[in-house]
Every structure is written in C-alpha cells, then in structure tokens.
Amino acid sequence: MLEFKKNTPLCIWWFVFKARESMTEQEQKLLRQIQELKEKQKSQESAGARGEIEKLECELSALQGKDITALEAENITLRKKATSLEKELQELRKRYSELRKIFGSLEPGVEKKPAAEKESTLARIIIKKYASVINEKETKTVGEIKALVNKDDLTVQAIVNDLKPEGYSFEKQYLETAEKTLQYITEEIEYVRADFGINFWLEPKEILEAGVSDDEDLAVLLCACLYALGDEKAQVVITELDNLTTHALVIAEIKGKFYILDPSQKTAFSKYSGEQAKCLEEFEFKSAKIKRFLYKFNASNYEQFV
C-alpha cells in the first residue's frame, strides 16, 4: 500500500492514481486490509491475524487473477517510481529557483522592472544625493563656457574632416558641409532630456561614445563643428520656451540668411531660415515656441540677457 505525506507533490499522486485506476474499489479495499494486518502482525505475532491475512490474499488473488507475491512486487515498483519522481521534482524546483534569480519572477501578471530601468533609478538617487557637489564642480566661468566651443578638439576635427570635401572652401562649400554636419549629429546622437537637477557639460568624445546627449551639449558640439568649418559667428543660444522650459540651439548667418539649427530634433537644415524675426516666430520644439533668449555664446563672445 502506497502511503504519502500531506505535502506529497500532486504529480506523484496523479501517477499513482493512473497506475491503480484499473483496480476496483473492492480490490483496493482488500489490499489496504492486507497491509494493515501485516503491520499489525509485525507488532504482535498472531496466528489469527496470519490466517485472516491468508484469507484476504486469496480473495484478492481471485479478483486480480494474480498471486499476492506479484501484487506486492507491483506495489514495490510503484513505490520506487514515486520516490524517483519526487527526486526529479526536487531537481526541477531547484532549477526553477536558479532561473528565477536570473530572469525574475515567471508568475503571470507580475511585471518586473528591466535592469536598465533599475540602474537608472539608482543613478538618479546617487545624483540627487551628490547634486551639490556636482554642481559646484561643474560651475564654469564665462571664459570656460566660451572655451567649450573648441574647434581644435580632436573629436570635432575628426567629424569635420570626414565630412569636408577634398579641397574644402568656406566660401563655396560651407553651406553644403554645414548641412551634412547637422545631419550627421542628429543621426548619430540621440537627444535625451536630462532632468537630473544638476549642471554638467560633456566633451565631444564622451557624447559620441555614449551616443546620447542633452540639448546643450548637442548645440555646443554643432557650434564647435561649424567653427571648425570656418564659421566664427555661429553661436549657441539658451532659450526659454513658452512652456517655461529651457532649450539650447544654434544660430548662424550664411550668405545673408539667418538660420536656426536644432540638433535635438530631426528637421531640415533650412526649415528655419530667412529673416531673423520670422525664424524666431516660427521655430518650435515639441510644440513650444521661443519666449526669449537667456544667453548666447561662442568661442569669442558671451552675452547674457537676464
């Protein structure tokens, strides 16, 4: 007779049930009685008990068409198989536990945050904790801000040298090359809004390696590239939009036309070009319009408006 503890896995109960489902209720009852009497016989040798066992065994053999030895052998086999199944189940539980540690919960309806999102949350906590230290370190003088537009930076030089045609002439080929430069930056570097509550400036090399940047560093990179192409008048402008956010862009004058160039969004090079007032009125970033300039700068000039 197979006996299981209360916490025996359901799959083992199912196996035993399927293995014995061909036995009738009467046969199962006889088998249970035989097992109980054998246990009783072990604790107290009784001729009466032995006789009763033999009688029941004969009845069971008659019903099954097998002798009691064969039935007991089948019972032993079932026990071994059940033990084996229980060991396999334990191994599966162990493996499941290992996989859960790697991939997270597999339970339906339970969503786990991606690792990248968890890292981002942790980074924000650390940045917030040390914001005052970072802001103090990143505070720059007017001279240091102007120096950000560095045409001699090796990364800036590598970009413009790849884009300039052979025998480049500023007078003849600047407009075309400037357009290629803006296109390169918008395609190779993804704009992200960095709401970390800190001031920071990335170097061109760091921007290209990361493949992402905020609007200010993108504008500085574009302005530095235009400066390397020979445009000494292009400027980075930090604006206040009518939704009360700030946004950085580049302004330039090419062949008598005013241009607003925004490397944070993929717009045509000449979309905002022509008369200055008209360009400033029409420009928008995420449906927000320019309210006013806060400050502007390049390698040789810095002007603050508020």
UniProtKB/TrEMBL annotation:
Top-rank taxon: Archaea
Keyword Coiled coil listed: yes
A Pfam entry, by short name: DUF553
Domain called Transglutaminase-like: residue spans: 173-265
Stretches of the chain forming a coiled coil according to its record: 20-102
Keyword terms: Coiled coil
Record flagged with keyword Manganese: no
Similarity field: Belongs to the UPF0252 family.
Protein name in the entry: Transglutaminase-like domain-containing protein
Source organism: Candidatus Iainarchaeum sp
